[in-house]
# Entry
Amino acid sequence: MKASTESFFERVYEVVCQIPYGRVTSYGAIANYLGAVRSARIVGYAMNGSHGKDVPAHRVVNRKGLLTGKHHFEGTNLMQQLLEGEGIKIVDNQIQNLETVFWNPSDELK
DNA sequence: TTTCTGACTCGAA
DNA sequence: CTTCGAGCCAGAA
# Structure
């Protein structure tokens, strides 16, 4: 396993791929897990390159549970439908019961 | 090479 | 209460 050899993106992809079904996480949570709480933007930017990969970017939202990146998905509510398909309630592009479906990598993966 | 932007977050006024 | 600014890293022009 290469660690420092891989880019910041690869680490983000791994964490996102480890998100369990019916759960979501935030960019900051991933960044925090990677040790860069201030690099939350990079996580979001990394998702921009997640297209064509097995990275469930639809499970990643901002810390408010708002689907900020839904505009990057096909259609206008694809991201919402994907999350709803996992049992996650979304209203006005915002995840409901965020505390319930929130998945913290730093707490689960450690 | 430099400069800018970005699917973010936090702190301060 | 709301609004604004700064910081982080990486890729593209």
